[in-house]
Amino acid sequence: MLEVGTKAPSFSLPDQNGRLHTLEEYQGKKIVLYFYPKDSTPGCTKQACGFAERYPQFLEKGAVVLGVSKDSVKSHKNFETKYELPFPILSDPELQAINAYDVWKEKKNYGKVSMGVVRTTYLIDENGVIIRAIDKVKAAENPQQMLDELA
Predict the structure, then answer these.
(1) Which end of the chain has the smaller Cβ count within 10 Å, N or C?
(2) How far apart are CA 58 and CA 50, in angstroms?
(3) What global pTM score does this model have?
């Protein structure tokens, strides 16, 4: 996980509609950048729907929400459509941002060890500096937790 006070690594990734997003285009706004393992799984769905529910409040506070996983653009489109997600979900199959933000880790699941995205959320300030970094994120609580961080 990257440290608070670190300049957020730049990225250029397509969203669920194929539109490229870069860190730089959000200069002047706070960014909630959350990394999650997989579209349409129970925890990831809870987290995404929690952000969707609170999305107007994030906008009111001048913040944008960006989700990132290694799923494909097509998978993201299905996820967005099924749950009516109002924010960009970025596709990172090459692990460009996932590696840059240090969220690709060894995971143990039912005794099996594999590599995967560890659910992590970063709050990035208007100048592109990480001001909050949370690992071991609880999917259902994370959206409210991040909204509270912006208060």
Answers:
(1) C
(2) 12
(3) 0.96
Dist. CA 40–CA 94, nearest whole Å: 20
Report the catalytic residues.
Answer: 44
Cβ pair 97, 69 in contact under 8 A: no
The length of the chain is: 151
Residue with tokens 């099924």: 82
Residue 38 makes CB contacts below 8 A (sequence gap 6+) with 44, 69, 71, 117
| Per-residue tens of pLDDT for the chain, all 151 residues | 999 999 999 999 999 999 999 999 999 999 999 999 999 999 999 999 999 999 999 999 999 999 999 999 999 999 999 999 999 999 999 999 999 999 999 988 788 899 999 999 999 999 999 999 999 899 999 999 999 999 7
